[in-house]
Write a structure and sequence with these properties.
Oligomer: single chain
Helix content: 25-40%
CATH superfamily of the largest domain: FAD/NAD(P)-binding domain
Distance between the termini: 62 Å
Shape: globular
Mean pLDDT: 96
Length: about 575
Amino acid sequence: MKLLVIGGSAGGASTAARVRRLNEEAEITIFEKGRDVSFSNCSLPYYTGGVVESSEDLIMMFPEDFKAKHNIDVYTQTEVLKINRAEKTITVKDLKNGETRNEAYDKLVLATGTEPVMPGSIEGIHSPHVFTIRNVVDIERLQAKLDEESTKNIAVVGGGFIGVEVAENLRKIGKEVTLIEGTKQILAPYDYDMVQILHKELDDNGITLHVSATVTAIESKQVKAVKDGKEFTVAADAVVMAVGARPKTELAKDAGLEIGTTGGIWVDHNYRTSDADIYAVGDAIESYNMLAHAPGRIALAGPAQRQARAAADHICGMYTTNKGYIGSSCIKVFGKNAACTGLNEREAKRLGYSYDSVMIFPMDRVGLMPGANYMVFKLVFEIPTGRILGAQAIGTGECDKRVDVIAAMITMGGRLEDLKELELCYAPPFSTAKDVVNLAALVALNVLNGRIKQVHVDKVRELVEQGAYIIDVRGAGELKTGHLKGAHHIPLNELRDRLDEIPRDIPVYLHCRSSQRSYYAACTLIENGFTNVYNISGSFLGISLYEYFNDKTQGREPIVTQYNFE
């Protein structure tokens, strides 16, 4: 069998290597248009911050390594111009000498990846001080600009994973960084209430963040943008464009292969295209979202690796299954770790799910252990089934571990009752006996079963402005560190003695620091005949984190006397 692979990054290289492990006799060749193959795309931003010391360290394997270790031929700086399906050949061009030739195949794999989106509406977008980050050459080019003494101010356009990681690393080496995002938040997989924590983290570390802003022009020393109908400028000696990527499908289209409804290359459950001898994997394809029950696209290294293995197995005559993807990812933003999986509330609503969510602020390990801190954890679940739909976590501890548990539960069809009973490892330096994920399930079950009614932090401003009856059940000392304007102070340990002060004919809203004591208070009121009681999910910590960034950047009147993030 002669296997040709177009594209030498994660998907292509992994497919080729897996086929070799299954078939020693196969003739395998990889063609890569760029200079390098098998490089760590996800690590590119960390080269600018000095975490990765050498650009060469970003390259996992060189062509000679593929030949020596796997007997795979690799041709870099070689562009595939055409797929000739009738003849089962491809036309390739050596970019070093300009020569073209045809190569025959029995099986062909497309791992063409994506290309950066470069909006033509932005004047000056192709200026020499505008950069994208898709490969090692790109990052070396950017680094050369950063090394110039005159490069002090950097504008990063786009608040996705790459944009945020680049902004963080540029700030860490002392650059003045402005991050401009067109929507109202960075990092779309996170809900708006959760991402405010990361907005604050960027702001706290000296990054100027503009959301809901559109770049209109790039000039030699500045960027022009518009927000709320008003133009503003940002100093910029260099500009990094990170507004997204589109699948590279030209070869597939020209060959008459089917393109999916999402714009990626259509593949079946074995990653075969509409031509049975041509497979496709990685960022260029249309996959299947198992929660949306619909086609989708996912540009992550983990799914690409799994797709590659499945395609290789099928090429070699092995049975494969394809359950689709749920979308799991994590990111570090200065001192915060963040992770997410499955559906956020916005997606659950768009897809028509009946759902609810809970937000909790538990300790990530036993409180007296060094490094113990709270973790913000959000769990999204289906009503009335209790099926787990998604989760998000932000903190200083192991957010990825908790979200990985939820990802496994979603993949296995887990429900809240399953999560409640899930047995996990415990020792004080690592977690609590009732882990974050177990606690989230317990809180969610209280909501699902109608034991407790709740209101989310995004509704609190409206409640305060309307003069709703809100009770703060924290202690007197905590009150001095900030409280909701207009809230009534009844400490939890005084609540039973002061029931006569609380109205029974209007809704009563309760909060503490993290929602635990206010939950106890809600139970007390309910057991004493109160019927219209709500616990504020996230409580004062959640309110402070939700309100802070918008208060600061919009100049609006705070609903708290003082923010408290501890």
